[in-house]
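Bumping with the actual sequence this time:
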Amino acid sequence: MADVEPPDGGFGWFVALGTFIVFFVVPGQAYSFGVLYVEFLDAFGASKASTAWIGTLYFSTGVVAIPLSMALINKYSHRKVMMIGGITSSIGIFASSFVSSLGQMYIIYGVMTSFCHWLLSVPALAIVRRYFRKRLSIAMGIGVSGTGAGQFALSFLTQIFIDNYGWRGTLLILSAINLNICVAGALFRPIEVYHFIKQRNCQNTIDATMCSISSTQPSLKTTETRPVTVSDVSLENNIYSDCKRHELEEADESESLVIQNDLSEHGEEIRDDVAASDHNIRRRIQSCATELRNFLKGGFDWSLFKNLAFVLIIVTAFGSQAASMAALTHGVKRGRDYDISSLLSSSLPAIMGMAQFLGRIFWEIGRASCRERV
């Protein structure tokens, strides 16, 4: 990937806004799981430990999804990964509203939805680094502060939705809210495209200025050649593409007529065509399998798993993420056991979210000021 100078502002602030939206929705829903946990206990009639495994699986699956996310970014782009992850995770939440057993909830919400959700954290952070260098700390602080803001807002909203629509209706609403990830993905414009559009706008401004100067001086008759712009090249390419398309369409029509005449005169050749078609299908399947193998080999450095330190970090992250869900999962239920109202019980994760929101903002601002002094 080419090293492009980041603008350190401008459209980059919209990219930071997109990162804020992603962290508002994804970790915001995860850290608000304790509100849904109480309803799952009543709905499935399972033990606290068995029901809590939904949240544990949700958080722990992210450790596996994040390395794959880095490989997908290298293969495709931040925007494509974000769009696909947003749509598939919304489908997972939507499907979770129709489950009838705890095992189905494990698979659909705890694994499938979690896997798609945690694919999004890496591109949301990586794209910010492409747009910022000097103000990176401030931009990252704005983006990741969406975690606390989402936890604060969605804890209350989830409880309100449950009181009015039940847990199944709440999951339907959350799946719709989750589609805002696609809106954030639309803001993740590749930095190369940003610079291309900026250069094109500058060229258009220069052309407009030259035209205005020439119009104010009609007596000067020059034969200067206007520089070829990106628009001219695009127009020429479009004309060339149209011509080629018409030629291909005419060739396809004539070829189809010849094939029809041959089939009507030589019925035996049908079997040969079918055999050739089957051969082409098998060849395409083999090429897809080869491309998948090449992606798995080249998209990610699997030799990292031979490094003991890397493996220990992965195992430690898996355990810490699983353990961090204890307070978030059982806090709301504990409040209910002490006869605290449902809305006040949901305020426990909300307060934690507000503290996290303020902490991330001030931490990043303080770190940026320290760097400037150094």
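The tokens above came from a reply further down the thread. Residues 60 and 318 are 5 Å apart (CA to CA).
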